[in-house]
Amino acid sequence: MKNKLKKELGLFDVFAISTGAMFSSGFFLLPGIASHYTGASVFLAYILAGVLILPSMFSIAEISTALPRSGGAYFFLDRSLGPLMGTIGGLGTYFALMLKTAFAIIGIGAYATIFWEVPTKIVAVVSTLLFMTLNLVGAKKTSAFQKVFVAFLLVILVTFIVDGVYIICCGDSINEGTLDANFTPFLSEGVEGLFTSAGFVFVSYLGLTQIVSVAEEIKNPERNIPLGMILSLLVTGLIYGLGVFIMVAMIEPETFANELAPAAVAASQMFHWLPDNAGVLLMSIAALAAFASTGNAGLLSASRYPFAMGRDKLLPAMLSKIGGKGTPVTAILFTTAFIILFILLLSEEGIVKLASTFQLLIFIFINFSVIVFRKSKIESYDPGYLSPLYPFMQIIGIVISFILIVYLGWMPILFTAGIVILGFIWYNFHARGKVKREGAIFHWFALLGKYQYDELENELMTILKEKGLRQGDPFDETVIKSKISMFKTPVDLDKVLNKVSDYFAVELGKNKEIIKEKFLHSLHDDAVISLPGVLIFHTTYEDVLHPSMQVIVSRTPISGDIPFKDREVKLPIYICCFLVNTDEKPKQQLRMLSRLVDLLEREDVVEALLEMDSHREIKEYLLQNENFVSVKLLKETSQSAMIGRQLMEVELPEDVLVALIERNNKTFAPNGSTVLQEDDILTILGASGSISKLFKGYMGTEIEKR
C-alpha cells in the first residue's frame, strides 16, 4: 500500500500525545466556567467525567488494537456500521477536533499578551503555521516536540499541586474559615448540576480519542495503545481533581466563577518560596506549553481524518497523498486552513459544548461498534486488548453518553444534528457511487439470512498480517520443528497430499484419509491461499497440542488438477505449505497463517527456495529472524571447543538458543544432552546484543551472521 504511514510512535509517544491534548483549556480555562453549574464541587465533576469516559475508553482500546489504522473513530464506524456512519462520524469528529484545536491555539495568543503586546489572533495563526511545519516533517518529530511540552508541563503541574496541598494542610495563608467559605455552596445545583458540569468538562478528556487517529503509526499497538491510554487517564484525572480542588480552595467563589485564568490566580497566592509573581509567571508559561501541546497534537490527529477518508474515497483522493517525509501533506495543509479559518471567524463561546456533544454521540456509536464486531463472528477481528465486562461495559457507555448529551442542552444537540445531516448529504451525493463496501453489521445480519460484505474480512486479514505475530505465538518453534520434504523428480498433487497426510496422521494421531479429505475439501472451497508458485493449506482439528507445519519443495512443477472453484491457480506450483493448529485457538492460527503468507509473498521466493539444498536453509529462510547466526563446527577454529561436548556444557551468552542442528544433511531440534559433532551446522537465535557477542566470540570463516 503506497499511502501507508510509518510506525514510529512508542509508548511514551502515545502517553505524550494523549496527555498533551488534555492539559490546556480543561485545566487553565474551564474550571471557573464549569463551576457555574455545580459550585465548589466542580473538582468532583472532573473526577466524575474521568470515570464516565472509562467504558468508551475500553471500547476504543479494543477496536484500535484490532484495527490500528489512521482515521480513528471514522475508520471504526465505517468498518463496523458502514460507510454512511463512517462519513457522519468522520466529519463530525474531524470538525470537533479542529474546533478544540483552534480554541487551544487561541489560548496561546491570549496568554502571550501577558508578556508582549501582540494581537491574540495573529499569534494564534502564526502558531498554527508552526505546528503545520512540525507535522509536515513527520509524526516522530511532532511527537518528540510533544514529549518536551508534556514533560515540562507535568513538572510544573505537579509542583503546583504539591505546593497547594502543603499550603492547604500546613500553611498559614489559608484558614479553616476561608476554606469553609470557598467550598460553600458545594453542590449549588444538586446532582443534576454535577452531571451537567461533568458533561461540560468532558471535552477535557478527549485527548484519549486522539490516540486512535494515529494508531497506524504506533509500534506494538496491542500493548502501547491501551497501556498509554490508561496511564494518560490516570495521570490526567489525578492532576485535574487535585489541581481544581486547589483552585477552589484558593479563590473566592464569585471570583473563581468569572475567572478565565484560575490557575494563574491560585498561583498568585502560592509559591511563597519564589520571588514575587514568579508563581503567576510559572503558571502562565505552563499554560502556553499546554495550549501549544494541545494545538500540536490536535493538528497531528485531526489531519488523519481527511487522510483516512480520502484513502477510502469518502473524500477527494488527493487528501490521502503522502509526502516524502511519510506524512499526509495535503490533509495537513487542508486541516491547517480550516483551523486558521475558525481562529479568524469564530468566537470561543460555546465551542466546548459543541465539541463535547458530538464526541459523546461518537462514543455511543463506538460502544455499539464493539458489540457489532463481536456479534459479526469475523475470525480476523483479533483485538490485542479485550474490553472487560462485555457487553455490559458497552451498554453502560451508551447510556452514560446519552445522559450527558441531554444535560448539555438543545443548542449543541442541534449542531450535532446539523453535522449528521451534512454527513448524510455528502455521502449520498459524493461518496455513495464510489464506495462498494459495507460494515461488520452486515456480517451480524448474515446470521439472520441477510447480505454481508466479504471484502471486509479480507481487509481485516490484511491488517492482521501487518500487525504481525503476538508475543507467545509459537511460529518460530513451529518452523524449527516443521517437516521439510524436497522432491527432485516430478510429483503430482495427489502424491503430495498422500505424503503430507502420512506425516500429520503420525504427528496428530488422526486418520490419514480424514486428513487428506479435509485438505481436498479446502481446495474445493477455495480456502487454500494461492500465491505465485505457492499453495498454502491451513486447517484446524480438535485435541491438537501444538501447531504443526510441513513444507513441500518440488524442483519441477507439481502436476495434477487443482480444483479451485471460483478462482484461478497461479501456476506453475513448486511450493506447498501445510499449517495445522488446534481449533481452540482460531485467532492464533490466523496470525501464524498471516505471518507465513507475508514470508511467502516476498519477491523471488520460489527461486530462493528452489536454490536451497538443505532443510536448515529453508527453515532459516522461513524464520526470517535478523537475530541469528549459523555456525559450522570445524577443527582448528575458534568454535572447535564446542566439538564433543554436550550442548548444556557449552558456554553461550544469555538470551540465545541453539534452535537447529544440521548433521549429515538432516536437520533436528537439539536438547541439552545433544553431543555436538564436527561439521555440525548450528542455527542460533537470540537477542541482538547476545548474538553480536556470540558472533565476536566464535568469529571464523564458517560463521555467517544473519
Automatic annotation (TrEMBL):
UniProt key word Zinc: no
Membrane-crossing segments per the record: 12-34, 40-63, 84-112, 118-137, 149-174, 194-215, 227-251, 280-302, 322-345, 351-373, 385-407, 413-429
Subcellular location, record wording: Membrane
Lineage: superkingdom: Bacteria
Occurrences of domain RCK C-terminal (ranges): 616-700
Domain PTS EIIA type-2: 477-625
Residues in the signal sequence: none
One of the Pfam families matching this protein, by short name: AA_permease
PROSITE patterns in the record: AMINO_ACID_PERMEASE_1 (PS00218), PTS_EIIA_TYPE_2 (PS51094), RCK_C (PS51202)
Membrane topology, from the record: Multi-pass membrane protein
Keywords carried by this UniProt record: Membrane, Transmembrane, Transmembrane helix, Transport
Descriptive protein name: Amino acid permease
Natural source organism: Zhouia spongiae
High-level lineage: Bacteria, Pseudomonadati, Bacteroidota, Flavobacteriia, Flavobacteriales
